[in-house]
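Researcher: Here's my situation. A collaborator sent me these components and asked whether they could plausibly form a single complex. I don't have experimental data yet, so a predicted model of the whole assembly would be a useful starting point for our discussion.
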Amino acid sequence: MKTIFLAAAAAACMVTAAAAQLPPAEAAAKIRARQHNYKQMAAAVRSINEQLRSGAPVLAEIRTRSRLIAGFALQLLRWFPRGTGPEAGVRTRALPTIWSNHRAFTRAGAVLVVASRNFDRAARGGDVAAIRAAWPAVTRACAGCHDDFRAEEH
Amino acid sequence: MIPVWDLPVRLFHWLVVLLVPLMWWTAEEEMMDLHMLLGKTMLFLVLFRLIWGLIGSSTARFASFVRGPAAIRRYLRGEQRAGVGHSPVGALSVIALLAVLSMQVGLGLFASDEDGDYAGPLSHWVTFDTAETLAERHEQMFYVLLGLIGLHLAAILFYLIVRRDNLVTPMIIGARPDGEGAMVAAPAWRLAAAVALAGLGTWMIVGLL
């Protein structure tokens, strides 16, 4: 199952990698759109953390967020067409390694697809212990990609 | 020797000296769980000091050392000798340091990092964007704190070298060789009350550790 997802994500990404350079205005719009999406994901991560830290997590709260993260994870690799790196002239912390080491970037994206899907499935199940157990893989996937493909702040 | 600082004031002072660099370091190293635990300790300490400023020993009380501009001018012109405890100018430093420490703790309570991995215990009261902005202010406010600490250390050096007055030893042992008047110590039950109140306040704000 895992390999199917990895392969699917990789294939989806290769299609986008082949796409031509974007005109600057379009690149800027793409960057802003993905930053907006990331912010929504971060807010969802914060809410899930908050629920899981509390003694009695509200499952409905977790489920809306887990769905958002799993959904965004599937699109995420398409948010980075060539030309939306630092060369676009918009403030972005996307590192050039996203495109120069695209295979590793794709792999990192696929890790999130799998982890967020597992977590979403656990959230739908309702076993709190299973939900808790599935969560660290998601945040690790976020951090794993940020470590290699996102510039440090400032 | 004349008593000048009681034990609670000295303990508060040196614990802050210990906590500030530790909190900077845990933030730099992204040891956020420890950072937040230390932050809750800082919240307790600041609450305690504010309460102790109302009911503590004479030299700990804000009413005993916070002075208006006229008194500060007289002190600066050397017309008014200060009794033991904070001078009218030192009072400004105490107020500024306590204010910035309070703001730092306050900002931290509501802050969240940009990825949503770590959030202050009250961060769910504000939107994600606000929490992120507060995290930036939290970072910037640290430099304000550093500036004030720099001023504080410069003043201590000035007193040591120019005025030949060692302020560090009294902050350790609680007494100084000379001075006008002496500290009137608060009874132990007041200390117990202040600790209990600060503990209650901390618990009400952030819950149990």
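Model: Some features of this prediction you could bring to your collaborator: Chain A has six helices and no strands. Residues 8 and 105 of chain A are 14 Å apart (CA to CA).
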